[in-house]
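can u pls check wat happens w/ phosphoric acid mono(formamide)ester
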Amino acid sequence: MNHLLSTEHMPRDLIEAILDDSDEFGEVLTRPIPKVPALRGRTVATMFFEPSTRTRMSFEKAAKALSADTVTFSPSTSALSKGESLKDTALTVWAMGVDLMVVRHSSTGAPWRLAEWLDIPIINGGDGANQHPTQALLDCLTIRQRFGTLDGLHIAIVGDIKHSRVARSNVFAMATLGAEVTLVGPPTLLPVDVENWPVKATADLDAVLPTVDVVYLLRVQTERGGSSVFPSFSEYAERFGMSSERFAALRPESVVLHPGPINRGVEIGHDVADHERSLILAQVTNGVAVRMAVLFRLLGGDHDE
Ligand code: CP
C-alpha cells in the first residue's frame, strides 16, 4: 500500500490486516505510557482545508503515539489567503521535510492530485462527498469488536447518503467484509449511481429496523446542499431520525453508530446518542488505533518487523 485514498477496490485481506493491527495498537493505547518508538524521526503533516475535530486530532494523537513529529496546516492563517495554490502549498510543506500528508479538501479527487505531485504517502482524510477511508476502517473495527465479524451482518446506513463520503467509504468496506448493506433515505438523498453500489435502498426506515444488527446514522450535509431537498429538519427527523421510539423497535443486540458530529434531535435522539448501545465514543477511540495502524503501514518500513 503506497497511499490510502479510497476503500473501493481495497482487498478484504488488506482491510482485515489493518483491523488486526488496529486491535494491537488499541492495546498500546491502554498502557500507562501509550507510546511506541515505531516512527521516531518521521514527520506527519495534517493538511485540513475543511473543518475537523475527530479526524485531524486523532491523526495527530496517532502520529505522536508512534513517536512521529507532526506539523499542522491551518488554512485560515496560511498563505492561501495570498493566493497560493493547492499544488504550491503542498510542495511548500513537502519541501520542509515531511514524510506523509493527511489531506482533507472540499474538492473530490484532491488527495489523488497530491499523490501525483508528491513522492510521499498521502492519506485521504475526506474529499468532498467522495471518500473518507479511515472513517470506514474505524467503523468496521468498532462493529467487528462488537460482533466478532461483519460477515452476514445487516447494516442500515440512514440519511443523507448522496453527499456523504462516510457512506461511500463504508458501503465498499462493509460489503467487502461480507455485510449486507441497506441504504435508507429519501430518494433525493440517494446517490445517482446507487445501482452500481453493492447495496439495497429504501425510504422506509421503520420497515428495516427490526431486521438490522447495526444502524449507521448520517448527519445531513448542509454544507453540500443536503438540507435543500426536504422541507424542514423536523420533518426529516420525523421520517429518518433515530428517536427513542424507533430505537425500541430494534432487536436487543442491535447497535447505533454515527461518524459525528451529531445533531441531537435531528438524525439521533438525545437518549439514543447516550445509550449504552450507541457506539459513537467507541468509534472515536478506535479512530486513534486505526490511524496508528495506517500510519505504521505507510511509513513503518518492513511491516513484519
Ligand atoms: N467523522 C469525522 O470525519 O469527523 P470530523 O469532521 O470531526 O473529522
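Residues 101 and 184 are 34 Å apart (CA to CA).
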